[in-house]
Amino acid sequence: MQILEINGGEFRAETIVEKIVAYGMMPQLIKEMTLDRTTADITITPEEQQTASQQVFQQLGIDSDEKLGAWLKQQGMTAPQLVAKAERSLKLAKFKQTTWGARVNSAFLERKQQLDRVIYSLICTKDFCVAQELYFRVKEGEQSFDSLAREYSQGPEAQTGGLIGPVEIGGIHPDLAKMLIASDIGQLQTPTVIGDWIVLVRLENLLPATLDQAMQQRLIEESFSKWLEESVAQQMTTFTSHAA
């Protein structure tokens, strides 16, 4: 039976497994093994293999045999293992594209409204009478939204004169997002209760999301991350039930 020596101690395979579980490292191990299984049957060309190696060396700042040797020693890896790791990254990119690339357009259309970005002005207060007074001051042009936000708003937006954004609509409080979606640019909404606050909000600009290359990659990565998380969770449940 193979023995692993660490810090002067000798550990058998079953002890290593116990340590992995005790240190909370099992999810990471399952994740890595899932990626190994996922990429096992994906092939890459010799040119792609060379490119993958060059990219990983560049990312690690390795430009000489001496630096490569030092890095491998520090990480406890061999050169073939590092090359294999680089190739797995490329295979994984192919897996992502093959699995979710064709679904990007439909995913984008489903989420577009949440991916649109907005710039808006906000005043938060807990006094409805104050909110009402500020609303009429802005509405009648007596004072600017900026100056009133700096003086009266009780949230961090006071530091920016109430101006927030650009931010994705999906990252905003749902009730506030509904108000902004229903607003025209420059429209000041009447004081509205959201959670513990009474808010004044005005939509300043709408920046529609576009399905460019960066957005495509983001949607693919998000789909992959969700799939991987669910896969690891399922396997952890199975492992826990067997270990009980």
Provide a descriptive summary of the structure in words:
The chain is α+β, with helices and mostly antiparallel strands and 244 residues long. The chain folds into two domains: 4-103 and 216-243, no CATH class; 117-207, Chitinase A, domain 3 (Roll), CATH 3.10.50. The protein is built from ten helices and six strands. A four-stranded antiparallel β-sheet has the order 4-3-6-5, sandwiched between helices. A two-stranded antiparallel sheet has the order 1-2. Helix 2 packs across helix 10 (213-243). The chain is elongated.
Compact description:
With 244 residues, the chain is α+β, with helices and mostly antiparallel strands.
Structural class: alpha+beta
Topology pattern, helix = H, strand = E: EEHHHHHHEHHEHEEH
Oligomer: single chain
**The biggest beta sheet, please?**
4 strands, antiparallel
The count of DSSP E runs of length 2 or more, i.e. the number of strands, is: 6
In DSSP terms (H or I, runs of 4 or more residues), the helix count works out at: 10
Number of self-contained structural domains: 2
Average pLDDT metric: 91
State which percent range the strand residues make up: 5-15%
